[in-house]
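[Discussion] Sanity-checking designs against the backbone

I'm trying to build intuition for which residues belong where. Below is a structure token string of 398 positions. I'd appreciate it if someone posts a full sequence so I can compare it with mine line by line.
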């Protein structure tokens, strides 16, 4: 694909009419009804009023995790729940296996290193998915493995890992926990923590939960709770034993991110009115349509075997300055995509289909992509991607 244009004069952009389309995999757009709910005057958190909102959210959250147990709410970004997972279930010197297949796999490795675990990794090319057999083999050779840590959906590469198959491996062991970062898989995929045998599952507010950043969620299996009793890392804010006892009494141990919990309650109204199976289907259809568009335009997908419905990543034409393209689209067109991280910086584009995202968000994403690329001199046929997306989405509207 020849790209001849790299430097051209931009039009004057009228800021008032530059509508903003947030199409990056987090933070994601927040629905108007949720924004309005969160704009109401702050209430006090040690009140029946707050506790009834908290209970309403706490009762419904576990359905998204597929657990009968409780899902705890923590004030913090998703990484807070990742750290809480590690400090509550592991001890220094514990041997752990991290699936290192992207930026967030690296984060599991880094957190475990900071707390003194002995970390083994399965290192994969970005875009690849681990195979359950690789995990099985590792555990067979290393029966002392205390935990396997991975992502349900590795947002940096837009690839999923086969969590259900891996859970069937770990749940058959006596003492190897499966700790899953579900930050872009919970709320995107039907996730069955109890049935599959996931031991720790975490997510955050600003992805599929269509809230601002700042709230993290974590659920533990019975055997993970048993570990929490003996784990030897000092912890205070993230002591989940204390948090669990308090949240069972309809409040949080410390001041909650109460505006976000009020928003969460509204989000859960929306998700359950839509029906969770429809929420998952919507992500599937928009993911299918985005992938079809990218392929129709002739781009190479980053995730080949197991692409995520949270976001679609693909390689940009090699002559194109990806960083400049992302900046142009955000600042001059109003469309925010995500570029690549680390060695993929400037080389890939990621388009989100996560959270408050409908059919015409996908059309906007693809249409703007085509027009922007043509402005950058790429040799593509306008409408080719849009048409491929429409062919999938037409059966879904109305
Ligand atoms: C966004 C994301 C994170 C990081 O969450 P923060 O909220 O930025 O702390 C971790 N893992 C995955 C898979 C993510 O998508």
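Best answer:
Here's mine. Compare freely.
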């Amino acid at each position: 694909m020849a790209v001849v244009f790299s430097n051209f004069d931009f039009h004057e952009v009228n800021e008032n009419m530059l509508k903003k389309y947030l199409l990056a995999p987090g933070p994601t757009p927040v629905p108007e009804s949720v924004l309005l709910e969160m704009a109401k005057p702050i209430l006090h958190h040690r009140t029946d009023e707050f506790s009834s909102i908290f209970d309403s959210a706490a009762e419904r959250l576990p359905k998204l995790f597929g657990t009968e147990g409780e899902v705890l709410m923590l004030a913090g970004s998703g990484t807070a729940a990742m750290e809480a997972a590690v400090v509550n279930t592991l001890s220094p010197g514990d041997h752990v296996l991290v699936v290192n297949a992207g930026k967030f796999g690296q984060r599991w490795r880094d957190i475990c290193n900071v707390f003194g675990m002995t970390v083994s990794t399965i290192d994969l090319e970005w875009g690849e998915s681990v195979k359950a057999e690789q995990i099985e083999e590792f555990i067979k050779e290393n029966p002392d493995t205390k935990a396997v840590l991975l992502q349900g959906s590795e947002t940096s590469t837009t690839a999923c890992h086969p969590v259900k198959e891996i859970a069937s491996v770990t749940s058959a062991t006596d003492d190897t926990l499966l700790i899953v970062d579900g930050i872009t898989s919970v709320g995107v995929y039907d996730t069955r923590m109890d049935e599959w045998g996931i031991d720790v599952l975490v997510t955050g507010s600003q992805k599929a939960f269509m809230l601002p950043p700042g709230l993290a969620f974590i659920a533990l299996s019975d055997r993970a709770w048993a570990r929490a009793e003996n784990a030897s890392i000092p912890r205070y804010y993230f002591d989940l034993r204390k948090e669990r006892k308090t949240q069972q009494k309809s409040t949080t141990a410390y001041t909650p991110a109460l505006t976000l919990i009020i928003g969460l309650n509204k989000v859960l109204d929306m998700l359950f009115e839509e029906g969770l199976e429809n929420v998952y289907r919507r992500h599937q259809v928009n993911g299918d349509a985005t992938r079809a568009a990218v392929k129709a335009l002739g781009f190479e997908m980053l995730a080949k075997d197991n692409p995520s419905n949270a976001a679609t990543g693909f390689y940009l034409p090699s002559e194109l300055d990806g960083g400049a393209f992302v900046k142009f689209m955000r600042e001059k067109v109003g469309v925010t995509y995500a570029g690549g991280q680390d060695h993929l910086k400037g080389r890939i584009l990621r388009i989100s289909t996560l959270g408050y995202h409908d059919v015409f968000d996908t059309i906007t994403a693809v249409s703007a992509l085509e027009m922007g690329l043509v402005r950058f001199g790429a040799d593509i046929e306008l409408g080719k991607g849009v048409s491929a997306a429409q062919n999938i989405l037409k059966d879904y509207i109305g």
